[in-house]
Amino acid sequence: MNEMSSVSLIIPAYNEEKYISECLKYALLEANGSFLEVIVIDNASTDETSNIARTFEGVRVVREDEKGLTKARQRGFLEAKGDILAYIDADTRMPSGWFAKVQKTFQENRAVGAVSGPYIYHDIPKFQQWIVKYFWWYTLAIPIYKLIGYMIIGGNFAIRRDVLSKMGGFDTSIEFYGEDTDIARRASKFCKVKFMPKLIMYTSGRRFHGQGIVKTGVLYALNMVSQVVAGKPFNQTYTDIR
Question: How many CB atoms lie within 10 A of CB 123?
Fold first, then answer.
């Protein structure tokens, strides 16, 4: 069995004053000091995101003035010191056991270079949760993963630093859609990318609330397939929903 690796937690955040406090509370409680560091990348926020994050002991806030999710991810990569870089979204609530699952997976199999798992949307109606679970995960996402052998969900993944270095970091030309599939596709050239259905992450359904569950699902599906088939996203632009 391999020795334990250090894990940096990186949280990109653009105008997340409504969510960042809960995100940090859950992450710090779950990890109980196990993360080497917790870094919030303030991605050109104009609200109180940074000030709120700084009230948490042991949390480092780094300002990235060039707005964009992939740019924030890349800045986290450059700032972090851990052997493993874990990325979550600022509107997530890390569940009990998340850190242990990630650490154990990397420890037991050196061939695994990236791990990810599904979302559970904690604030949407039960029937919408059912739709996401059975139509998105069971009908589309997991079968595609079994077919192509890689999948990453952007607000719930961890990757070895050396793999990310070999990839040349994140593709900062991608604005939003398809960026996580791009990470998985490129990482799979250097390691095993493992999708773990039990590595869940609770998150908000704000994008469903803001643009509808059907439209959101179609956009995510189109961009995932486009990345797999063509190596680029289907949509070049996106709408911020806060």
Answer: 13
**Hey, what long-range contacts does 132-137 have (CB within 8 A, 24 or more apart)?**
132/213, 132/217, 135/217, 136/217, 136/220, 136/221, 137/197
DSSP-derived secondary structure for 122-155: TTS-HHHHHHIIIIIIIIIIHHHHHHHS----TT
- 57: Cβ–Cβ under 8 A, 6 or more apart, which residues? none
Quote the CA–CA distance of 69 and 74 in Å, as a whole number: 9
Helix (H) or strand (E) holding 156: strand 156-160
How many distinct helices (H) and strands (E) make up the chain?
Answer: 10, 10
Q: CA dihedral defined by 73, 214, 19, 90, rounded to 10 degrees? A: -20
Q: Which amino acid is at 96?
A: S
Domains and CATH numbers, the chain: 7-230 (3.90.550.10)
- For 142-176, the pLDDT digits (tens) are 898 999 999 999 999 999 999 999 999 999 999 98
